[in-house]
Amino acid sequence: MLGESLDQEVLLARLEELRAEHASLNAEVDALAECGVVDQLKIARLKKEKLRVKDEISRVEDQMTPDIIA
Q1: Over its length of 70 residues, how does the chain's per-residue pLDDT go in tens digits?
Q2: Whole-number Å distance between alpha carbons of 26 and 60
């Protein structure tokens, strides 16, 4: 039981880290778009990284949700 709560804490910390990274990437993409920078390659790379982080967030959230046998 103790190991399970420790795992949940680790997953929660990872989730918060990923959410902060996603928000940072989002702000960077928005800033580039607002200031008129037309470096489409950089924007595309940032958006791809945002999607990767979002997928990782989904994986961590799935790990935190207990399996329910119906």
Answers
A1: 566 777 889 999 999 999 999 999 999 999 988 887 678 899 899 999 999 999 999 999 998 887 777 6
A2: 20
Cα atoms in the Cβ-side hemisphere of radius 13 Å centred on 46: 18
Compute CA distances 35 → 26, 38, 58, 70, whole Å.
14, 9, 31, 52
Contacts of 12 (CB under 8 A, 6+ apart): 64
CA distance 14 to 49: 17
Report how far residue 47's alpha carbon sits from residue 50's, in angstroms, rounded to the nearest whole number: 5
Residue 1 structure tokens: 């039981």
Q: What is the DSSP letter of 35?
A: T
